[in-house]
Design brief:
The chain is an alpha/beta fold. The chain is built from eleven helices and seven strands.
Length: about 240
């Protein structure tokens, strides 16, 4: 079985299918994805409050659907209000930050203020991280909030190998491999660099077919036991606050 910790709900300005609820369920069935965590594309690129409202309604459609609230640190007070609005919703497991769209860096004081406000909650953070500067910024967050759990989305993108070295000393930073190109040894090297228990499975679905990242895992020379940690055991532990799966 699979837990996909990096999914998107809604359309983008890219050439791609428009995934409705039924088609999303079809893909979850096809790949035996037992839990998928979505963020709203509208919340990322346009209106985070409207996008989050639509996401919360979407999550009601299936018990496998969970969500991240997208926040925009440019609107600090509104972002904090947004989390408080949905904090008791068990379908919301974390916060998504996309500094490339918001143009607010990962180590900006407004970002820090959001993390500090909710540092004693169960929420995890999925942060879009592309390039060495963003990886370095993420380590500043991890160092300031050692009890908060962060996911380095895309493992830093096309410089993922160097980014693994940067985040290796920080046990509260997890990595996940999804990107629009496949590097066969990305998962294997991620395990070897940061440890088996810090590598998660994420696909960027619905932007990318889950089969693409499944192929990256299957071609990474992993044992069946290692695959089980990547596909679901690490995510279960992360979502349950660090308890063993």
């Amino acid at each position: 079985m699979i837990i996909d910790i990096h999914c998107h709900y809604g359309s983008w300005s890219f050439a791609m299918d428009n995934f409705g609820v039924d088609k999303i369920k079809e893909y979850l069935d096809r790949f035996n994805i037992v839990k998928a965590i979505f963020s709203s594309s509208k919340a990322i690129v346009y209106d985070f409050r409207e996008g989050n409202r639509e996401l919360v309604e979407f999550l009601k459609a299936d018990n496998r659907l969970y969500g991240y609230l997208v926040l925009n640190p440019n609107y600090l007070e509104e972002s904090i209000e947004e989390v408080n609005r949905y904090l008791d919703n068990e379908k919301i497991v974390g916060i998504k930050l996309h500094p490339a769209y918001s143009r607010v860096s990962i180590d900006d004081e407004r970002t820090m203020a959001i993390v500090e406000q909710f540092s004693d909650t169960r929420l995890i953070y999925l942060i879009h991280t592309w390039g060495i500067p963003m990886a370095i910024q993420l380590t500043k967050l991890a160092r300031r909030f050692p009890n908060v759990r962060f996911i380095m989305g895309h493992t830093g993108g096309d410089v993922w190998f160097d980014c693994l070295d940067i985040v290796k000393p920080y046990p509260n930073i997890y990595v996940e491999p999804c990107s629009s190109y496949a590097d066969r040894d990305k998962v294997r090297m991620s395990i070897d660099k940061v440890g088996l228990d810090r590598v998660l499975f994420g696909t960027d679905f619905t932007l990318i077919n889950p089969a693409f990242v499944i192929g990256m895992v299957e071609c990474s020379r992993l044992t069946e036991e290692e695959k089980s940690y990547i596909y679901y055991k690490n995510s279960i532990k992360l979502l349950e606050g660090g308890k063993d799966a």
